[in-house]
UniProtKB/TrEMBL annotation:
Residue span of region Disordered: 174-208
UniProt-recorded name of the protein: Biotin--[acetyl-CoA-carboxylase] ligase
CDD domains documented for this protein: BPL, HTH_ARSR
PROSITE patterns: BPL_LPL_CATALYTIC (PS51733)
GO terms of molecular function: ATP binding; biotin--[biotin carboxyl-carrier protein] ligase activity
Organism: Haladaptatus paucihalophilus DX253
Keywords linked to the UniProt accession: ATP-binding, Ligase, Nucleotide-binding
Compositional bias per record (Polar residues), positions renumbered to this chain: 192-202
Pfam families on file: BPL_C, BPL_LplA_LipB, HTH_11
Bias-annotated ranges (Basic and acidic residues): 174-187
InterPro entries, per the entry: aa-tRNA-synth_II/BPL/LPL (IPR045864), ArsR-like_HTH (IPR011991), Bifunct_BirA (IPR030855), Biotin_CoA_COase_ligase (IPR004408), BPL_C (IPR003142), BPL_LPL_catalytic (IPR004143), HTH_11 (IPR013196), Transcriptional_repressor_C (IPR008988)
Annotated GO biological process: regulation of DNA-templated transcription
Length: 342
């Protein structure tokens, strides 16, 4: 949203304000004011024309309105439906964009890591941030961790007991979901039960450490010591019934009911913005929200499996696993939670 349109919107929110008054105060023509008002109406803002002037009645729950009231320096490119927000973000990055958020209600060609499919029905928050941070490529994983912290915090504010599983998932753990489920019937539990004698293989939801609320796919381009751009693609299951999601997934709606997605995304973006400007805060915040630390884990890496107890996370996002052969730092891989370490 450009500066003038945002100023028109702010004035309407404090309205009623007449067209001529607005034109005067913003130093643009009355015709330009009219065009901004019409464009805002098209974007779903409800603007009443009263005898005293224009008045903002209602802000759309989702859409371009995400920029309205956002306390972070991102502009938003909104799509009702898109193939992959990461693909669109890449186009924008290659054109030189910075601090743009590509946001969609529905994503029909979403990607996970290793070209896995990401399911993105309407009602979700599918977003990709285009960033140009002044960091070496090796530090980019910190942005993934920051995004996970931002999502987990926003989810917790909404009442969802979210935790982070290394490296890129936000989960609702079985235990915590059940804590918040006392009002549900026993055949309506959100997270599948893990057997008492869960083996080292782990079971479906148990191996994931809980049900998946959000996944993050970070992509980048750069040279040896400096990134050119980074795209942090974040998929959050917000107002989606579990039936529309793959097995092992959950949503905000399933845990606490539907929420206002505009407010939810704004909180994610604001938290992310605060963390990217205070990188020293990322790891401590991540540790606090982690479902992985203290767990027995198996991490599948390109050099084979690492099995042991996850004891820490260190810059720029490596998991420290205490194994029979000593501590191993794992930088990338798929992580299964086995059983809690004694
Ligand atoms: C991820 O991959 O978790 C990263 C997902 C990133 C998605 C976002 S949405 C916005 C942006 N645009 C894109 O095109 N992508 C990003 P990974 O760790 O590989 O997990 C993928 C696996 O999660 C799949 O193989 C499924 O098992 C599962 N999955 C697919 N859709 C899901 C959903 N909506 N919720 C939970 N799990 C899902």
């Amino acid at each position: 949203m450009n500066e003038t349109r945002r100023a028109v919107l702010d004035a309407l929110a404090d309205g009623p304000v007449s067209g001529p008054e607005l034109a005067d105060s913003l130093d643009i023509s009355r015709n330009a004011i009219w065009k901004h008002v019409e464009a805002l109406r098209t974007a779903g803002f409800e603007i009443e024309s009263t005898s005293d002037g224009y008045l903002l009645d209602d802000v759309p729950e989702f859409g371009p309105s995400v920029e309205y009231g956002l306390d972070a320096p991102f502009s938003v490119e909104y799509h009702d439906s898109i193939g992959s927000t990461n693909d669109r973000a890449r186009e924008l990055a290659e054109e030189g964009a910075e601090d743009v958020v590509v946001l969609a209600d529905e994503q029909v060609g979403g990607r996970g890591r290793l070209e896995r499919t990401w399911v993105g029905p309407s009602g979700g928050v599918w977003l990709s941030l285009v960033l140009r941070p002044n960091i070496p490529p090796a530090h980019a994983p910190l942005l993934t961790l920051a995004a996970a912290v931002a999502v987990a915090r926003a989810a917790r504010e909404a009442g969802v007991p979210a935790e982070i599983k290394w490296p890129n998932d936000v989960l609702v753990s079985e235990e915590r979901a059940n804590e918040g489920q006392s009002d549900r019937s026993s055949d309506d539990v959100l997270v599948s039960e893990t057997s008492e004698g869960q083996s080292e293989q782990g079971t479906a939801a148990g191996a994931r450490g809980g049900e998946k609320l959000c996944g993050i796919l970070t992509e980048m381009e750069g040279e040896a010591n400096r990134v050119s751009w980074v795209i942090v693609g974040t998929g959050i299951n917000v107002n989606i019934p579990a039936d529309d999601l793959p097995e092992g997934a959950t949503s905000v709606q399933e845990v606490v009911g539907s929420v206002n997605r505009r407010v939810f995304v704004q909180r994610v973006l604001e938290e992310f913005d605060a963390l990217r400007t205070d990188v020293d805060a990322v790891l401590p915040a991540w540790r606090e929200l982690s479902a992985t630390l203290g767990q027995r884990v198996r991490v599948e890496t390109t050099n084979g499996d690492v099995v042991g107890t996850a004891v820490d996370i260190v810059t720029p996002g490596a998991l420290v696993v205490e194994t029979d052969d000593g501590d191993v730092r794992v930088h990338a891989g798929d992580c299964d939670h086995l059983r809690p370490a004694n």
